[in-house]
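User: Modeling request: complex.
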Amino acid sequence: MAETNLILLGPPGAGKGTQAERLQADFALAHISTGDMLRAQVAQGTELGAEAQKFMNAGELVPDEVILGMIAQRISEQDAQDGFLLDGFPRNVEQADALAAMLVDGQRRLTAALLIEVSDDEVVRRLAGRRVCMKSGHVYHVEFDPPKHEDVCDQDGSRLIQREDDREETIRRRLEVYRRQTAPLIDYYEDAGVLRRFDGRRNPNEVHNHIRATVATLRMEDKL
Ligand SMILES: [Zn+2]
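Assistant: Request completed. Predicted assembly structure:
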């Protein structure tokens, strides 16, 4: 069977992580999240991690050269030979060109770029409402999953805080960066004929069903 190589696009808070996990299970793809790769570097205290942390703290994106080497290595690994799902990469047209060159080198091709569309205000509503308990990191949402007592963890009674990453001004800044750098990718992949759009305002199950059906169809077409 031909490999299934996918890119997942959409703003922060669109639910890409959830969809990626499900698609990975549906189609046995290597799920490659630049966020996870970077967080692992930060947690391990590597030089690359320290470098990346500075940009992430400022709500900025990590520079291309830090990312590209990691991706090239990762998609060549054994578990990615039948297909991969890129989540958080590419983030701009330069990265997309670099990815295209990597794929040509490996005589591979992109199956589809999946775009989950959500408005800025909806992203803010989802992310700025998150509260995390200081003791154990239990997660709540002021609107969708509130604690019984305001700002107190149901499970251990510790205080709930809003993380720096979840503050509205940080989110708006990330969205600005997203619109400026990533939105051109939508045209890029549309021109390449591989863009597929999904309505991210729907619930995660509906979004998943729609994406899964689309990818299944593309795989069948590949086999013909
Ligand atoms: Zn707690």
